[in-house]
Specification:
Helix content: 25-40%
Radius of gyration: 17 Å
Distance between the termini: 15 Å
Shape: extended
Strand order of the largest sheet: 1-2-4-3
Order of helices and strands: HEEHHEHE
Structural class: alpha+beta
Largest sheet: 4 strands, antiparallel
Low-confidence stretches: 105-119
Mean pLDDT: 81
Strand content: 15-25%
Number of strands: 4
Length: 119
């Protein structure tokens, strides 16, 4: 509870906000062992600065003892074109001599994702 009560104040200086902070997701493929939290920032530098900030580090343990933290990633923005990404991935795979049908796509969001593990 204390983490939830204090996190907003750590996000505000970095323009971070919750996009998802919810109950378990409806799983339509595979498995998902919990719920998801997504926090969005204007960019990766702000997300990193928030994570490294003394204010967040002061409450990090409150979260880390109960929730797995996964990653910080750069987003794609509103003009993102998945077809253009496919062209670049295809060209890179062909250049490397890899099978084109087995392209691996990374996560497409500028968000910090956390999986809430119910213990």
């Amino acid at each position: 509870m204390e983490y939830l009560e204090r996190i907003r104040a750590t996000l505000d200086p970095f323009a971070g906000h919750f996009v998802i902070h919810g109950p378990p997701a409806e799983v339509v493929e595979g498995t998902w062992p919990g719920s998801m939290v997504l926090i969005e920032f204007p960019g990766l530098p702000e997300a990193r600065a928030w994570y490294d900030s003394p204010a967040y580090q002061a409450i990090l343990r409150l979260r880390a003892d109960h929730i797995e933290g996964d990653l910080l990633i750069e987003g794609v923005g509103p003009t993102y074109d998945p077809a253009e990404r496919a062209r670049k991935l295809r060209a890179a795979a062909e250049h490397a001599g890899e099978p084109v049908g087995r392209l691996h796509f990374g996560p497409p969001a500028a968000l910090m994702r956390r999986r809430v593990v119910h213990r």
